[in-house]
Records
---
Amino acid sequence: MSDGDSGAGGRAAPSVLASLRSLGASAVGIARTRLQLLANELEEQRARTLQMVVWGAIALFCAAVGILLLSAWIVVALWDQYRLATIAVLALIYFAGCVAALKRLKTKAAERPKLFASSLAELRRDQDLLRS
């Protein structure tokens, strides 16, 4: 009887080992897929950030030149009567704009989207499937 038991145990061990290997290979495959998704999201975010920085710099440069020229035009147009008052009012307007922009920047920095949201959702779904 002990021969039959060891034979059955011998047959069961390789099938369990094969199942564990298959499970391990599946886990590695899932992890590889998720890491590829994570890398894709990271690359997309990097490209998006670079585009935003470039377009923001272009917009900032154009706005600065436009504001400078408009300010010069206003000061020259009012030079005879109100030159100092005009310069003071323009300076106050620019400082107020700076304060408003800094407040908006602080708000936007706090509202940034969650990084790797798709990858985390996929990992949660995998976890739920493994639990059920």
---
Amino acid sequence: MDGSRRRARFEAETVPSRLRYFASLVRTEHGRALEAAPGQGSLVLRRPRGVAGIVVPRRSPVVLLVCSLAPALAAGTTSVVRMPGQTARVNALVFGIFSETESLPRGVVNGFTEEDGAGARYLVAAADVPCALDGAAREASAMDDFVECERVTITPGTIQR
């Protein structure tokens, strides 16, 4: 089996489990609550940060896209995805699947293909866009890259943010 087929098989076998893992986080990640002191509670709420910038390299583009896009979607952010020009056919297939997925609202995943890196540099330079580079979102804490946490203190009769 040649290298291209091995890489394609790796991507096809890896992606479904990653998608299932992050889909399960959507149902379990709600924030944290604890009693900070007698009669006083503390609650941490998680909210989407807005837009996530995802720069995907040409090696294993589907797996590395899913490793960053899945946690961003699970966190509730919209995404701008830069795919490498060397994988244009794969990019077209992936974005075709996104556009045909009825449960994925229009504008949640936005993508472009490039070879020169200008768009990738623009995403990385944007201060208000958390970026996942090289598909490097970490497993258990991957959603943390795409959410803001707000601590709320609750005492009888008051809520402080």
